[in-house]
Amino acid sequence: MEEQVLTDEFFMKEAIRQARRAFDADEVPVGAVLVWNGQIISKGYNQVELLKDCTAHAEMLALTSAFSALGSKYLPEAALYVTLEPCLMCSGAVYWSKLARIVYGAADEKNGYRRCTGSHTPFHPKTEIVQGILAEECAQLMKDFFRQKR
After folding, report:
1. Which residues are catalytic?
2. Is residue 94 within 8 Å of residue 101, measured between CB atoms?
3. How far apart are CA 12 and CA 52, in angstroms?
4. Taking CA 94 as the corner, what is the angle to CA 92 and CA 100, rounded to the nearest 5 degrees?
5. Which of 8, 12, 77, 123 is the least buried, fewest Cβ under 10 Å from its Cβ?
6. pTM for the complete prediction?
7. What are phi and psi for residue 16, nearest 5 degrees?
8. Closest to 18 (Cα-Cα) out of 96, 76, 84
9. What is d(CA 120, CA 118) in angstroms, rounded to the nearest whole number?
10. Is the CB of residue 99 less than 8 Å from the CB of residue 78?
11. For residue range 72-107, what is the model confidence (pLDDT) as tens digits?
């Protein structure tokens, strides 16, 4: 179990690097990486402002890139690491992707999936959900970003 936690932290650190790219681009700092067979196969960070597209969330971009790279519409052996609890839209995409795992850092009380679903999971029944990996670091990026905006 401890080995899995170390692996989760390793991949979450890469997701945090992606979130910093978003921060530097003046986007809400959310980053994601998709892992398959222990390798990062795609990355994404929020690009809503850049692309003028409200669906250009880190998770959506990482998923689309992974589908293209693997030539598959389902990713049942993959894990998605994301710095912030996914919103309902991204949760729907994760559901249809049939991911094995979703690992996220900070909770999102305002826009996270749990705001709409409560104790019910919007993910595929076989998807394992892990929350709170490097949560403080992930949350601090968000706090710094919005503090800068005020």
Report:
1. 59
2. no
3. 27
4. 145
5. 77
6. 0.93
7. -65, -40
8. 84
9. 6
10. yes
11. 999 999 999 999 999 999 999 999 999 999 999 999
* CA distances (Å), origin 78, targets 42, 105, 140: 11, 17, 27
- DSSP class per residue in 60-108: HHHHHHHHHHHT-S--TTEEEEEEE---HHHHHHHHHHT-SEEEEEE--
What is the residue-wise DSSP string for 7-75? HHHHHHHHHHHHHHHHHHTTS---EEEEEETTEEEEEEE--HHHHT-TT--HHHHHHHHHHHHHT-S--
C-alpha 148/C-alpha 145 separation (Å) is 5
What is the pairing mode between strands 78-84 and 101-106?
parallel
**What confidence tens digit (pLDDT) does each residue in 109-143 have?**
898 887 788 777 888 888 999 999 999 999 999 99
